[in-house]
User: Fold this.
Amino acid sequence: MPRIGRKTVAAAVVLTLASPAVAEDTVKMGALATLEGAFTVLGEDGMRGVELALEEFGYTAGGKKVELITGSSDASPDSAIRATRKLVEQDGVQILIGPLSGSEGLAVKDYAKTQPSVTFLNGTSAAQDTTLRQPAENFFRFNTDGAQWMAGLGAYVYNEKGYRKVAVLAEDYSFPYTQVFGFLEPFCRLGGKAPVDARFWVPIGNKDYASVIAALPDDVDAIYVALGGADAVNFLTQYEQAGGELPLIGGSITVDQTVLGSKGRTRDFVVGTPSAGPISDTWDNAGWKAFVDAYKKRFPDGFPSPSLFAHGYYINTKAALLALDEVNGDLSDGGAKYRAALAKLAFDTPTGKVSLDERRQAVADMFLTEVTEGPDGNLLNKTIKVIPQVNQTLGVPYEKFLEYGQVRRENPTCE
Assistant:
């Protein structure tokens, strides 16, 4: 055997002793987004939000370096769980930000229950039951859910637009069920109608809307559309080409920058579309303007204004970092003190104050908006009204809200 010199042994000892110290000085953070499939552009902007928050903190929090490890899904629960397992069980992340899409969030919430020493913060997944029913104690959502996003829209189109009967077109999974519920509950309560046979549900990644367009009823005042990414672009393009004339009501991600910022001929067609959601492109607020400026400076090839996905991932990542500061980066107890700090955390975001309820779900301001053409010719959502501090049960007591039942295709019936 070759002889090992004293210096070599000394160096080995130094490396052995140094390695744990290096590890203790670093927090591993995972970020999971849809970087494959129909929602790819949504996931890419979500990751921009993660980067903005980390760069704001200099990739350090609580005196520790933050190492970012990313994971990719295609919006399906199975892909989200595969990516999450890798991040947690192979890469060893202690904090995970994500996922992006509704049914992914339900799956990751359930997985979180099997990993009690890992802390999960949502990305933008906005299905209602991720936190409303059977929440995980280590899963936090600092972004609001899809029903909260609809605050004010149902009443607005009933009272101001005069719509009395609408058709619905949406993707067939948990988030659009949540959005449709959030829109229809007040619209129907006021006397509006959305018959079950006028609701059309399509799979994520649907490319041909000809049969749906042909089946849309003539006796409605408008179409409520809850499609995202490439699905929204495909429908809007095909409906315009088919000579569609019914006014649109936009789900939050249907008129988000991930759709409005795409290239195509639907520009004039969607101008004037009312919607609601967690952001408004034209909000006249210093914090929002600073966020937009930072986004545009850092990502000149991004969208004209940050999408709600950049916004949601930014807020959840910033919450993770603020709580690390609160506990001086100490996760040595399996993250117990850290999660206690997260549960009590309230802070100012680019869209106002956010805090959590007892199920670790965000309470925050919502924005009623309308699509308009901006000064540079790009499409924007202009602010009509701010609805302050909307909670998950929309102002209804929790037990009473549960009586509505789980969101689904036919809830509410609204006949």
About this structure: The mean pLDDT is 93.
